[in-house]
User: What shape does this take?
Amino acid sequence: MKTFHITILILVFSFFNEINSQVNSDWQWSHPNPQGNDIRYIKMLSANDWFAVGYTGTLMRTTNAGSNWEVYSNYFGIYPAFLGQGKNIYDAHFWDASTGVVCGTQGYISRTINGGVDWDSIGSSAGTTALWEVSFGDANTVYIGGNSGFALKSTNAGLNWFSISSPSGGANRSVFALDANTVFMGSTGGNIYRTTNGGTSWTPFNTGSSSPIIYGIYFFNINTGFVSGASGYVRYTTNGGTSWNIPAVSVTASETRLFGRKSPDEIYILGDLNSIYKSTDYGATWTTIPYKYPQQVIGLATNTMDITGNTMVVCGVNGLFNASTNSGSNWYGISNVLNSINMYDIEYNSGTGNVWAVGRGTTGISNAVLFSSDRGVTWRTQSTPTGADYRSVSMADENTGWVVGQSASVIMTTNGGENWIEVSNVPSSSQTLTRVQFVNANTGWIFGYSPGPNLFKTTNGGINWLTQNYGSNDNGARWASMLDANTGYYITYNATNSRIFKTTNGGDNWTENFYPNPGNLWGIKMINANTGYVCGDAGRLFRTTNGGNNWETVTPPGNNNYTTTDWYDINNGVLGAGSGYSARTTNGGQSWLIRNTGGSAVWNMEMTHPDTIWCTQSFGYIFRFISGITIGITEWENEVPDNFILKQNYPNPFNPSTTIEFGLNKAGIVSLKIYDITGKLVDVILNDMQFNAGSLKVTYDASKLPSGVYFYTLEVDNKRIDTKKMLMIK
Assistant: This one.
């Protein structure tokens, strides 16, 4: 049994939003705020005390009705397939203000008996099966549905679980327990199943369609109930499922969900971008409740909601939190989401604290350029003449800047982005423009790819543009690093064998630099004319110290597909990869600190100081690195032992933190697990993480465990290497 504990704690950073506390990560949410992962469940334990969970192990808690939040990323353990990212939590259910259960990916179940302050990770027979929904039938009886027809039951409030007969062979995506014995499960093909004997046997019902997955179920009694599914699908029955009717309400959501409550009997339909739908007469009539408030820039879909008194909260995609204190008549935003599409590039001016981030704007809305004047504490959109898919931003100074993107889009500003104007004199027709780089207010380049001219240079601030030749037939550039008016590098756009080219005469001529391991490269950063790094797929990381004449291999922590790299100097650098992965070095790659941001796919990182790093990701996510939070960090060093080795932790005894070191003599998939004196698994520090050969160090926080003797075990490629004993004394 694995115990988690939430300490009510507010951390205030001078450059971070003081209304929210992110307490377990050195990567802090900057946009959206307070966080941007999808929320899948919200519970108002009281008018002020709210609890929410969602994707990538997100856990949120407020004690003042959303004015302040504690935000935890990767809280419920690591999902091994996603580079150290937290497990997705798909659902939760509270029986009362004390007792609740969460479930999610990899067969994960956890429960609390004190209102979410402590959580116990409960073992089950689900293995790696995704568990989609949980429902209490009474204070002790709980049901969970999962993939492949999986169904679980607990008769002691979630402490222990056992499998029950499967109602279907498909994915049980929805569960609703009317009481301890009467349970409904929704599956694929528009089918639901009902048991009246606690899961011993099930009766199938088709709700009227052969196609949709059933995402939501709510029954007021054994006869009257609703189901919802894919593509706005909603049906209701008044005879226990024998026949089904289409309610007089139009829903367009791709995943339609339900929320119901009794006393008074109410049913709500969720999922649309701007409204929820309410019925108080079992579906005979419906009221549309718009929840998008006037200042909200974009509409986001709802996954869940809750009501207490006159207070309503809806939650969903990209961390959406909207609330009403008058039963839905008026709404206000708890979360601040300005863009829900990919953010590709970021530019930070350390002198002014101004930050620009660019990406793909939400369809039909000009919100592709985000701007902050206070180092990412607050953000707003800057109006652009087009809603293009922007890929790169370069600010020559605090006023003058350029943005480029898809469909040959080029815009510029001379007043810090207060106004952006479309530039039409760049001789480009339809190319995807990947990078813009200005080395001063007059001299800059635009790089692109696709057939036709796609490399352009100006020496007079964009008044005129000259078409240049790449010197390559690889369709253009993926990434570029220009140092001054003469010297620069770019990586060719080639999905199987990227190449590196260099210019010393301002782009008039380019010559190829050969590197030792041909393959797909994604990022390049030249620190000066001689020194720089490139990164790419399958753990590719190379360094030059002689202007690209030679490239030496730098060994990263693992063979990940590195999408971006940036360096402050030859020693201080950062790598980014899919699923929020990051690795930071302070000694030129000899050792690395590994930390998942808790977000999504990393597109770009900018290191403006060894302790100042910005990260842009999919779904409009922006993070800022805050140095100093060390608990849970894994340090990898390129010192390869002769054999696998597990060292004694130190200090030992300890309270509450200790360091565990181990060594790998070859690359492997690593797990590091904690067991109590009875041999029961109580914590997992590393769960199937891939590392290259080297020496590793993990800082482990055991404050969630009681005093006692514990054992830690190293596993590599599913083989137990060694086990050692440690003592924690509080």
Summary: Confidence is low (pLDDT under 50) at residues 1-18. Residues 343-628 form a domain with the Methylamine Dehydrogenase; Chain H fold (CATH 2.130.10.10). Residues 634 and 698 are 5 Å apart (CA to CA).
